[in-house]
Amino acid sequence: MNLFPMFTKEDLKQLQSHGVDPKVAEAQINNFIKGFPFINLDRPAIVGDGIKAFNAKEAKKLSYFYDSNSKKYEILKFVPASGAASRMFKHLFEFAEIYTGSADDLAKLQSDKKLALVKQFIDHIKEFAFAKALSKAMRKDDFDLDDCLTRHDYKPIINYLLTEKGLNYANLPKGVLMFHNYPDDPRMSIEEHLVEGANYCKDKEKRAGIHFTVSPEHADKFLDEINRVKEKYEELFDVTYELTFSLQKSSTDTLAVDMNNKPFREADGKLVFRPGGHGALIENLNDRESEVIFIKNIDNVVPDHLKEDTFLYKKVLGGYLFTLQDSIIEFIEILEDKPDDEDIRTILRFIKTKLGFAVDPDFAAWHKEDKIEYLHRKLDRPIRICGMVKNEGEPGGGPFWVKEPNGEISLQIVESSQINMDDEAQKAILNQSTHFNPVDLVCGVRDYKGNNFDLRKYIDPATGFISIKSKDGKPLKAQELPGLWNGAMADWITVFVEVPVSTFNPVKTVNDLLRPEHQ
Questions:
Q1: Looking at the domain assignment, is residue 472 inside a domain?
Q2: Distance, CA of 26 to CA of 22 (rounded, Å)
Q3: Range of the domain at 96
Q4: Taking a C-beta distance cutoff of 8 angstroms, is the pair 42, 409 a contact?
Q5: d(CA 510, CA 507)
Q6: What are phi and psi of 398, to 5 degrees?
Q7: Is 496 inside a domain boundary?
Q8: Is pLDDT of 2 > 60?
Q9: Is the pTM of this model over 0.85?
Q10: Which of 185, 194, 293, 452 has the highest local Cβ count within 10 Å?
Q11: pLDDT at res. 113
Q12: Residue at 151 is within a domain
């Protein structure tokens, strides 16, 4: 008897080989049918109401506290690095397809605002950290970079940058692209993460743990490059790197469906799976056994002369985590030892002033035993301290107070796709937001007894996302899992701290490397 009537026997075999539980696959299809509910915003989190801001003296004190206590912990730097670099070069691909080198094309390049990024790239090509390597690759086939620039022959330049003829950058992960110039050699973004790890993740044995998530097609190149440079930085910073890597699990892939919410199939009838988005990495994070984990994206790095703020505020976030964890452990121990009413009031004040949630609105009317059980459960959770920068127009999620279905209010990182833009009140709250999520987190992932939390228990499954894609010319619906720092951490203790915008320098297009902060 087939317990899953929407799937054939062959489907069930395919699901099993992919590592996907048929119950999970059924739930995904039901998500397509029902859709995901919108987040119910209560108000934006702002400085003084949801976002903590430290002055220079306080920041320095927290940094010292981190330095004084970090050797007691097993600390890991977790870097999502599985994304391909191809999207960085979209404008160059499009230009190479239409550019013929004619006078008309050249005039268009000089005047068309749609080609401004291409013109900027060409005009400043020698300022990129990869310029010398590109020139060398071109010379192997008797192309000269300067000559091509003089003759306005830009196609070879783009081809040797992006394809396997030369540097093959369009087919590599961001982590191994040359980001920054230095007097000796240019650095890849993974090298900048090695430098960071040596500064704030080194333990008492001078070991620094860094974990990279990589994609299967890029794993070999990634490992080759990081092994090539690792010893250089170990000598430079007197550190031994403990580098680990993981792939996004195939079991976190999601089924695609057609426009009628039926499983989308290949011509041979096989099911089609799609990656579950960065929310799938909660599984990779859950597999780590460290106590304290810093999370930062692969492309958010700066050269050495601009790292001071980054180092300081990583330690500020870490120091604040340590102080809150110490208080949480103390309060849990009080709750386990017959607290009196004053103890409960003290814990409530701590929750209200330090942690990012408001207790159940009916809490005051509960029996004492129920209050103790509730507070214990709320305190004994994973905790994340999230850096937030002032919003200067970057796309992405932001910090908000969110109304939960049970009446509680909690701090959450919310993407615009989770908000009902047809609701004017919700849209107004979004527009009042002052800060932006740069993906700058430090996480405490062990309980008060020293055991690692099962992070999968703290996911809000109702915070996924559905988008329209296509395959072989046919439209399909794709589903992303709750985002790593959105729904995947929805039931964590969440604390927002303002960090300077100088700590947020992502590279979304190759032209971003021309910004002053990357030069």
A1: no
A2: 6
A3: 90-171
A4: yes
A5: 7
A6: -145, 175
A7: no
A8: no
A9: yes
A10: 194
A11: 87
A12: yes
